[in-house]
Design brief:
Length: 293
Amino acid sequence: MTSLLLQGVINGLILGCIYGLIGLGLNIIYGVLRVVNFAHGEFLVVGAYFAWAALQYLGIHPFLALPLSFVVFFGVGYLLYFLLIPRISRSNDPETSSLLLMFGVSLALGAIMLLLFDADARTLDYAIEPAFLSFGNVILPSIRLIALVITLIIVGALTFFLYRTQVGKALRAIIMNKDAVNIVGINAERLSGVAFGLGIGLAAATGVIVALVFPSFSPFMGTDYTLIGFVVIVLGGLGHPIGALLGALLYGVTEQVAMVYVNPSLATILGFSLMIATIFIRPSGLMGQRQLR
């Protein structure tokens, strides 16, 4: 039982890091723009299909398709920002307008994926040797460990970008006080486009990782990943990127450890119960108080 518990904790940490990437992209967009990106999960699934198409038609390995997907969808997100977001920012209730707009985008993306790829689940046809690694009584798929390393590299690069570069510091400043950023002469509109592109690019790159780790994906899975993203940012603190990662680790470990002892459906319920308890006990999330300061 101890080895099963340890395996559950390790699986929870790995999946928690992946869930954290989902929440990070969603949280950056909300923190900078106050836009509720309800299409985040669909962009993630589009990233998975991007890797599948790159492998199927161009012979590009998923490991190479991952950075390529980020670059491509960063550009897509940057352009989409100037096409969609400035219009809703002038409405009486921008947050509600953004939720409705992005919900429409999610429906459109789901319909496009269904049209292009049909309803059949797809999988990435690749091989990793050895398929499993043993650490005593703990057995882990090799791809999960590789995905963990890739995820940590992305998180490290994002942390460096946000805390050590001028653009990243400006983005964090917008999260804290957008009016002050405008006063000092920083082009907040262009930075907002960068934030939107960064969130969409992270979603697509996370989609490639999800396609590597999980057995299949389909056009109908976007809502599930969007829901996970919202659970993560509620736990960590809305608008706080680092809090999203901590919330994801807590959610992932809780879910995977619970699966050791109870039915997987009950484990999922326990994960959502954790979110509800957080809303009642600490509505601002784990890191929300720091953000308010």
